[in-house]
Amino acid sequence: MFSKTFCATTHGIEGIPIQVEADVSDGLPCFDMVGFLASEVKEAKERVRIALKNSEFRIPPKRITINLSPADIRKEGTAFDFPIAIAILVASGYIPQENVKDCMMVGELSLDGHLQRVNGVLPIAYSAAIHGFKRFILPYDNAKEGAVVSELDVIGVRTLQEAVEYLLGGRIIEPTFVDVDTLFATTEKIQTEDFADLVGQKLMKRAVEVAVAGMHNIAIIGPPGAGKTMIAKRIPGIMPPLEWNESMEISKVYSIAGMLGEDQVLVQQRPFRSPHHTITPTALVGGGRIPTPGEISLSSGGVLFLDELPEFQTRTLEVLRQPLEEKNITITRLQGNYTYPANFMLVTALNPCKCGYYPDRNRCSCSVEQVKQYLGKISRPLLDRIDICVETSPVEYQDLTNTVQGESSASIQKRILQARKLQRERYEDAGIYYNALLNAKQIKKYCRLEREEEKVLENAFSTLNLSARAYHRILKVCRTIADLAGEERIRKEHLYEAISYRSLDKKYWGDL
């Protein structure tokens, strides 16, 4: 007898429906599975066979053939166990085919018939709703995650026996409900670190404010203990709150990575990822034999913080160049291409040399060759993709003992929100949301300079030996500074400030 059920697999951050076809017929007893299967999917026949036996379903010794279609999409993971078991039960006459026609199913089976949680439920639930499925049956531990998609009746089950009873109408299981709108609107935003805790470093605070207002990449350079890491950790607190569509995209990535749990069904705060400098290129951008999101995708919509930048392998840093431009990463494998978002703000911190005090020759003992070797790990193409480079100085004793608190994160965020509002209104028809996304044609349109400002920029271009990319990035930063000032026209003072954020390139890299 022939039957079919439906499940799904993830490809990038999207779910793709998969049809599970089962045929139970007379012949030499065997259990065959076809359909471009990974090894863990092929192993499902043993898990399914033992789970059916231990759930007290007697499957006669017949020829069982399972086909997962379409056959040109590689099937990976353990989420196919449950729909395969149900398809066999339908083909064996335990469940009418009519009872499963509108169901999407996923789940891994234990040998005793219990359903184990799986990754990627959120994008699969979205795919199920888009393709017209009415019910989504999945492991109980994944139920709240799937219930984020309100168009589906999400049924969480603990065992295979429980699922069969539900499909036969002998057990009533109420759909899992999550009031996503209320949850998203009322969840308390946890803010443990505030800009008010920072003492001194006004220049660094200002540069960070400009960077966040236009979503510009920033490098913070200075001696140890100057507050570089401290300020980086506070950046998510001054970024605009996540919007619904941003939260959904980030949550899909975290779902695929297995980082959503029963207590967190949505990512509601800007991500902050700070990988160690020993990270591999694959872990940073994603990939592997079975492609998974990397740190750049997990930080999408938020901050990717690379502390001690020169300590990272040069090969690792260079893989960032394309994602910084494209705002996504495409991983190519023999079985297809996997695309993940990479719309992050890059924040880097670095010492100017091994000892950390160059160019202060009273404290720095590094030779010119040592400094050159240390900073030489950061290539010029990567530097050109960093819009702002700001230098910090050691904190003065008077700042440490000052009892007056600095400006709070909430106060800084208000100015940033106002600047972002101007950008959103300006680029409403351009398909972008902030200044960092401007292309060369849009820069000419939205970052026009008067004759006097053009002369200033021309002089800086030749003096600092800027590239065309650096020239465009200065104009983008100018536009952001003007937005923070609430002005439509870019003035000389805006231009001078933007140029000052590129002058350190020559100071630290130009003479080496």
Summarize the structure.
The chain is of the alpha/beta class. It is built from 23 helices and 18 strands.
Q: Can you walk me through this structure?
A:
The chain is of the alpha/beta class and 512 residues long. It folds into two domains: 2-168, 2-Layer Sandwich (Ribosomal Protein S5, domain 2); 186-508, Rossmann fold, CATH 3.40.50.300. The chain has 23 helices and 18 strands. The strands form six sheets. A five-stranded parallel beta sheet has the order 11-14-17-10-18, with helices on both faces. The chain has a four-stranded mixed beta sheet with strand order 1-2-4-3. A hairpin with a 2-residue loop joins strand 15 (328-333) and strand 16. The chain starts with a strand and ends with a helix. The model has no long low-confidence stretch (mean pLDDT 90).
Taken from the alpha-carbon principal axes, the silhouette is elongated
CATH superfamily of the largest domain: P-loop containing nucleotide triphosphate hydrolases
Q: Identify the strand order in the major beta sheet.
A: 11-14-17-10-18
Figure out the total of helices: 23
Strand content: 15-25%
Number of domains: 2
* Major sheet characteristics: 5 strands, parallel
First-residue to last-residue Cα separation: 76 Å
What is the SS-derived class?
alpha/beta
Report the C-alpha radius of gyration, rounded: 28 Å
Under CATH, the topology of the largest domain can be stated as: Rossmann fold
What is the level-2 CATH architecture name of the largest domain?
Answer: 3-Layer(aba) Sandwich
Which segments are poorly predicted (pLDDT under 50) over 5 or more consecutive residues? none
Mean pLDDT: 90
Helix content: 25-40%
Number of strands: 18
